[in-house]
């Protein structure tokens, strides 16, 4: 969510009424952010990027924190490494940018229509998953940020084939099944589950990157709050480029 601080509780020193903030409060608990007012611990928020309006700022926290914590905190991506991002959409377009900002060579899978966009965001290579199996086109990968999972076409298991010995698969949607763990061990690679968590400090860093022009956010479409059901249906189609945003007030 993104909005303006109305009131702070006792002892809060990092924010004050009137500050424009954004955040992903409480996750994985329910934040009840489909509302005019949201309450949460102050350090689960950060000042929103000055370069963004509230619509674009609201599109950042969940997707960008997922990408940041996977790429930076979990995989510790380094300059010169090869990073494969599967399904470069909402979370993926941030993962591409963060990995590239760190100096990695980034490979992204997406339909052909999205390739020019991903190249603009910093992808060195793109693979059209509708015509090419990514394991036939990518090798020697240090890190795979898998945003699909094994429920769809065994994407996590197939990702093991592209990793160099000792490489890491960050399995985000569905975690690590016993079969996937066994496959990773047999292939001599590593695999880890992942779940994003609130992180105001990381959001502050991401805001600086956005304001400096190093990271962009893509908003695919906005919906008024009363059309939340339509927005969810659109998101569940799996065909959205960027993020969907609900506008609560005019």
Characteristic terms for this protein:
single chain; 250 residues; alpha/beta; Quinone Oxidoreductase, Chain A, domain 1; Rossmann fold; six-stranded parallel sheet; globular; GroES-like_sf; YIM1/Zinc_Alcohol_DH_Fams; ER; NADP-dependent oxidoreductase
In words, what does this structure look like?
The chain has 250 residues and is of the alpha/beta class. It contains nine helices and eleven strands. Strands 6-5-4-7-8-9 form a six-stranded parallel sheet, sandwiched between helices. A three-stranded antiparallel sheet has the order 1-2-3. A two-stranded parallel ribbon has the order 10-11. Helix 2 packs across helix 3 (90-101).
Q: What is the element layout, followed by pairings?
A:
Elements: E1 2-4, E2 20-23, E3 45-47, H1 54-58, H2 61-74, E4 82-85, H3 90-101, E5 105-110, H4 115-121, E6 125-128, H5 134-137, E7 141-146, H6 155-159, E8 163-171, H7 178-187, E9 190-193, H8 200-211, E10 219-224, H9 228-236, E11 243-247
Parallel strand pairs: 4-5, 4-7, 5-6, 7-8, 8-9, 10-11
Antiparallel strand pairs: 1-2, 2-3
Q: If classified by CATH, what would the architecture of the largest domain be? A: 3-Layer(aba) Sandwich
Radius of gyration: 18 Å
Per CATH, the class of the largest domain reads Alpha Beta
Q: Structural class, from helix and strand content?
A: alpha/beta
Q: How many E-type strands?
A: 11
CATH domain fold name of the largest domain:
Rossmann fold
Q: Regions with pLDDT < 50 over 5+ consecutive residues?
A: none
Let me know the average pLDDT.
95
Helical content band? 25-40%
Main sheet overview: 6 strands, parallel
Distance between the termini: 15 Å
Domains (count): 2
Strands ordered across the widest β-sheet = 6-5-4-7-8-9
Helix count from the secondary structure assignment = 9
Q: What order do the SSEs take from the amino end to the carboxyl end, as H and E?
A: EEEHHEHEHEHEHEHEHEHE
The gross shape turns out to be globular
Proportion of residues in extended strands: 15-25%
Looking at CATH, the homologous superfamily of the largest domain is NAD(P)-binding Rossmann-like Domain
